[in-house]
Each structure stands twice: as structure tokens, then as C-alpha cells.
Design brief:
Layout: E1 8-9, E2 17-18, H1 23-29, E3 41-46, E4 50-56, H2 76-93, H3 97-100, E5 104-116, E6 125-136, E7 139-148, E8 151-164
Antiparallel strand pairs: 1-6, 2-3, 3-4, 4-6, 5-8, 6-7, 7-8
Length: 165
């Protein structure tokens, strides 16, 4: 990861493409586990640039029991969380090898401009696209979108903080 003297990373610098990875790699990077792991697969990841990930939404998700019993809808805050988990994967993969070797956790530190445009229902495949806007010291800023069948379901600006575990 290229860093300037003021410890700012420019996402346009360095973009080693990764064709994606499966649940095993996701479990290595994220501390989340069932029922709160909301990323099933990463299709593509470009270091310091973007990630495309998926969440397969099943009627068996525990949140559908109460949201809503006769009209199941994925809660918007969990769509935000899925986008944040995708951002965390991008953040981890974009770290320098020195930072990556330390035990660190990415925390969601802020959500701005969140908008919900379409309900996410059982059987949907949530496609999550997150772009890295910039990293300043241990803070990452991201732009995130979640779509279903190419239609925008949610979007937000996310702020993530990298902390020692």
C-alpha cells in the first residue's frame, strides 16, 4: 500500500486484482460468525480500489422470524452491516504487509447518506459493491451500494476504523 508522508493512501495507487475468494478466506479475515456473518462470497477484490461481494438471503435467516413474521424483509441496518463487512474485507486486503501481520480489527465508525430503495426478500442475492475512497492513518472511507437483480436496494458512505485487537 503506497503511503504519502502525511500517511494518506490514494486508492488509485496500486491495484493488484484478486479474482475473489470463498467463505474460508472470509472467515480468516472477519471476526463475525453465524448468525452475524453477512458475506457469503467475494467475486472480485482490487486492492486499494473496490470489492464485489454477495449475501445469499435465505428464509432461514434468524431475523426473518421477527422482521416481519408474515412479510419477511431483510432489515436495512443488516444491509448496511453487510456493506460494512465487505468494506472491512477491502480494508484488510489493502493493508501493507507490516500492518497485515499485526492483530487488528476493523470497526464500523460511521454511516452517512444511507438510503434504502428496494426491499430485500428471502431468495434474493444481495450484490454488494464497495469502493475505497481513501485511507487516512487508520480510518477508511468507502462508498457502498447493494443491489438485487441489478436494482439498487441500498447505498451509503461508510467510515471504518482499524484498531488493535
Amino acid at each position: 500500500m503506497s503511503q504519502a508522508a502525511d500517511n494518506v493512501t490514494n486508492p488509485s495507487e496500486g491495484s493488484a486484482a484478486n479474482t475473489g475468494f470463498d467463505i474460508k478466506r472470509i472467515l480468516q479475515l472477519l471476526p463475525h460468525r453465524y448468525p452475524f456473518l453477512l458475506i457469503d462470497r467475494v467475486r472480485t477484490l482490487e486492492v486499494n480500489k473496490r470489492v464485489t461481494a454477495y449475501k445469499n438471503v435465505s428464509i432461514n435467516e434468524p431475523f426473518f422470524n421477527g422482521h416481519f413474521p408474515n412479510e419477511p424483509v431483510m432489515p436495512g441496518v443488516l444491509i448496511i452491516e453487510a456493506m460494512a463487512q465487505a468494506a472491512a474485507l477491502l480494508f484488510y486486503e489493502s493493508l501493507s504487509s507490516e500492518d497485515a501481520s499485526r492483530q487488528r480489527i476493523v470497526y464500523l465508525a460511521g454511516v452517512d447518506e444511507a438510503r434504502f430503495k428496494k426491499m430485500v426478500l428471502p431468495g434474493d442475492c444481495l450484490e454488494i459493491e464497495v469502493s475505497l475512497d481513501r485511507i487516512i492513518r487508520n480510518i477508511g472511507k468507502f462508498t457502498a451500494r447493494a443491489t438485487v437483480d441489478g436494482k439498487l436496494a441500498a447505498e451509503a458512505k461508510l467510515i471504518a476504523a482499524l484498531q488493535s485487537a
